[in-house]
Amino acid sequence: MVFDLLYVNGDWLNAYPLSDRIERLQQWLPLADPIHLVPTYDNGDALFASVKEKHMEGIVSKKRNSRYGIGGKNGNWRKIKVTEDLIAVVGAVTYRDGRVNALLIGQYNSEHRLVYIGRVGSGSLTSQDWQAVTRLAELLKSPANPFERQPKDVKKVSWLVPQLTVKIEFQEWTENGSLRQPRILAFVDENPDQCILEEGSDEGGNFP
């Protein structure tokens, strides 16, 4: 799969607009198996909607008049991933240097048992947000594991009374019932009992 042309017949084309490079690529590329030209689309919104409907990973968006920048990133192209979001319950936290640095999250299954769905430490929270989470975690500490089963490969956690709820963005569900590439969007005022696993995810993930 070929999507750009930077050098041909001794000439560098990186200073040419993307539209010109694609036109030259169409002229020079022998379009026959196994070589294929990546198709381009003018309506990015429609393409993204189609990709999302088909549960594909995402699209790459580029400015048609952009030059090719060598040696670094620029704002002329972006990878736009398809993501989902959900509300989860915080059942435990981990610490680093005396401050919470990650959340262990879950949702309730049909038997109202909290099922572990992943560990998340990245996202939109500021340093002040993490400090606030640390204070809340101290108030909600519990000796009991609130999850139905023991999360795997997670050590030195502090269990919490499952009252905090958080909005999570993620790429997809994995085969073992956990979230792929989860990110924290925000803490939300949601009834923890309403954080229900979607159908087909009752087993949760990351267990021994």
From TrEMBL:
Stored Gene3D superfamilies: DNA ligase/mRNA capping enzyme, Nucleic acid-binding proteins
Alphabetized UniProt keyword annotations: Ligase
GO molecular function: ATP binding; DNA ligase (ATP) activity
EC number: 6.5.1.1
GO biological process: DNA recombination; DNA repair
Coiled coil stretches, renumbered: none
ATP-dependent DNA ligase family profile domain boundaries: 1-81
Pfam family, one: DNA_ligase_A_M
Keyword set includes Ligase: yes
Catalytic activity annotation: ATP + (deoxyribonucleotide)n-3'-hydroxyl + 5'-phospho-(deoxyribonucleotide)m = (deoxyribonucleotide)n+m + AMP + diphosphate
Residue span(s) of domain DNA ligase ATP-dependent C-terminal: 97-185
UniProt key word Ligase: yes
Protein origin, superkingdom: Bacteria
Name of the protein described by the UniProt record: DNA ligase (ATP)
